[in-house]
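ok so for the tutorial part 2 we go from a plain amino acid sequence to predicted structure tokens. step 1 is just haveing the sequence, like this:
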Amino acid sequence: MVDLRDKKLYRFFEILPGLLTWLTLILIVLLSFVTPFFMAIFIIAFDVYWLIKTIYLSLHLRVAYRILRTNMKVNWLEKLNNLQPTTYNLQHLKSWQDIYHIIFLPLYKEGYEIVSASIEGLLKANYPKSKMAVVLCWEERGGEQTRHTAEAIEEKYKNNFFEFFSIMHPGDLNNEIPGKGSNTAYAASYIREHVVEKLGLPKDKIIVSSFDIDTVVYAEYFGVLTHTFLTTPEPLRCSYQPIPLYINNIWEAPSFARVVAFSATFWHTIKQERPNSATTFSSHSMSWQALEDVGFWQKNMVSEDSRIFWQCFLRYDGNYRVISLYYPVSMDANVAPTTSETLKNIYKQQRRWAYGVENVPYFLFGFIKNRIIPLKKKLYYGFITFEGNHSWATNAIMLFILGWLPIIVGGPEFNRTVLSFNLPYLTRLIMTFAMLGLMSSAVLSIILLPPRPPRFGRFRHFLMMVQWILFPVTTILLGAIPALDAQTRLMLGRYMDFWVTPKTRK
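step 2 — the prediction. this is what the tokens look like for a chain of 506 residues:
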């Protein structure tokens, strides 16, 4: 029986992120009318803070990128062979070849060519296929098209790995939100019975990779993953996060979609340098032992990728963390048949990502119930997560829209002050310096590009540079507003369902 007080407390925590965000935006508007002078000072201070933060994050981006480039040049299988078993941080393991990998690929309505590209990436990996089990978990609600795709993929690839499973997730199960979490959880229960327990595989020697269906691994992914797993203290208490590069179809994407895709890539590259504040996102890996200890992915969640981190964090009393792999996987940018559809799909995808705010009430409630997790760790993770969600929904709006309000609504008295005269110049100066940092990111985006398809001319490279003038617009319309939308929905109790981003390659 659910305790009524607990229910009310949880509901309060659901309201809290959206409430703080809306209070921030409303207060800025009101105070711009009431005390424009002090608001102008606040805006200048905020702009300076944002500039410093931009410089700080840019430095992290470059450090992480250098490590990534170095790691991509390493033969990690060779490093594994040279790694002495005495250095392993996993007890009773005599050889890295005793490690098995289970890869979950959830399929909804994606086409054969997308699924095939992902599995071809697994086949090209510099790692023994005899140690890899592939689980294609497909949705019954995807219809006959999905069934045919799953059957064709199974027929072609079933003999290429240690095991290959094609598992249908029924569409009529109760207490589920149809989506990646419920799909992979259903498949994991099957694998536990028919593979792990049947074959007697040691649970602490299995690494699980939960991938999106468009995830294409680079050649050394499983090598660097296994090496990191064996050399990390307490490897069973960690998730392992690669860098998502949204470049599979980047040449086909319209300019605003490319800006959004690269912005996401840069942010997650930066987070590689800040693992103590990171949670899992999208495609990632973890131990089977930890996954089973928490009962697999929750089936009623939109943001199952980050929720699994919090499940483990609470289950192990705060002794769980994310380890940065500094190694990429490539995924699709958001591309639809038309520009308007692409715009709509990006908005929905960003809103779904931002709905990760649903983890805030989960871990806050968990922190209250768990008295073992140190208070310092609770405060740290609470602040980092709150600040991240709040900034996502407010910063761009404050920078590019509300920051001009004191001048617009301050009245004649304020507009005669020196501060009123200098505010636009100071703001432009700060923005100029920030944009210089953005231009260096633009150069980095060119370096990350895959080879240009012959059907695109060289002028496309030029467009890849100038597209960044769209950044202020995209960060508001396709960043802050979807985040505000997600937080408002949670605040009002209008809970979201899982929305699958359509995958299109031209």
